[in-house]
Design a protein that fits this description.
The chain is mainly alpha-helical. Helices cover about 65% and strands about 5% of the residues. It has one domain.
Length: about 260
């Protein structure tokens, strides 16, 4: 078996990965809170934004962490279509979970289904991203550790959604994001414990180095998350009820996200 090192550059990659995971989760959960404060027919755009930010956040976290992963005697490259597919899986499957929570009546079943779908999105992105990795050898996995990593993803995603649904305050979203960041990173490094590599000098790795493809895409996603953060910050929160003491006068409010006047 080849020697593998997930901390080639020390703690730089894990810390950056955790930071990006927290930012993506914080924005996504905040968008979910904004959606749930609106009537059902106006929730779609916020939920789409939530799925995109959470999915992009966990994908970027994964590949930032993977850039600190090395195998002695092998060069690690990535298959571009599979790498892009892992990003799409993260957004789409997390989207199923977010939309389920966004449109179903609040209940334990809604929370469990939404958390399970979101957690499976995290796990699916990871293992498809690992499938995109290519080197001159054979990669195998320990089934028990794989199952444990999926369980971590589902449990933590459910916990983050529970906090979001039950404590709709800014500090709750921040705490949920920290939990989700720990979950994604814990899932990632637990899953990496399941990996073993047997080198074969006759195998030819075909793909693109991370610095040529993954890194530029990760930078673009960080820019996207920054734009989303600005949108969330500038878009006024919707109040579900108008205070009784408020004067009955005509008001014009502009929602910076959906562009509607009301």
């Amino acid at each position: 078996m080849a020697h593998m090192d997930g901390f080639t550059y020390g703690w730089v990659n894990p810390l950056l990965a955790y930071l990006v995971a927290c930012v993506g989760a914080a924005l996504g959960l905040r968008c979910t809170v904004r959606a749930l404060a609106l009537p059902r027919e106006r929730r779609r755009n916020w939920l789409l934004l939530a799925a995109s930010t959470i999915g992009c956040g966990i994908w970027t976290m994964h590949f930032i962490a993977m850039m600190g992963f090395s195998v002695t005697g092998a060069s690690v490259v990535y298959d571009i279509p599979l790498t892009l597919a892992s990003l799409a899986v993260a957004i789409v499957v997390v989207g199923f979970g977010v939309f389920y929570v966004g449109y179903r009546p609040p209940s334990v079943l809604t929370l469990l289904v939404g958390g399970t779908l979101t957690g499976l999105g995290v796990a699916g992105m990871h293992y498809l991203g690992m499938a995109a990795m290519d080197l001159n050898g054979t990669v195998s996995y320990d089934p028990g550790i794989v199952a444990a990593s999926v369980g971590i993803a589902v449990f933590a995603a459910t916990a983050a959604l529970w906090m979001t649904l039950n404590i709709r305050r800014l500090w709750a979203s921040a705490l949920s994001a920290l939990v989700a960041g720990v979950a994604v990173c814990a899932m990632h490094y637990t899953a990496m414990l399941a990996v073993s590599v047997r080198l074969n000098p006759d195998d030819a790795a075909g793909g693109v180095p991370a610095a040529q493809f993954v890194l530029p895409l990760a930078v673009a996603i960080v820019v996207f998350l920054t734009v989303v953060a600005i949108v969330v910050a500038l878009s006024p929160e919707t109040r579900t009820r108008r205070p009784v003491e408020a004067p009955q006068q005509e008001r014009i409010e502009v929602n910076l996200f959906d562009g509607r006047l009301r």
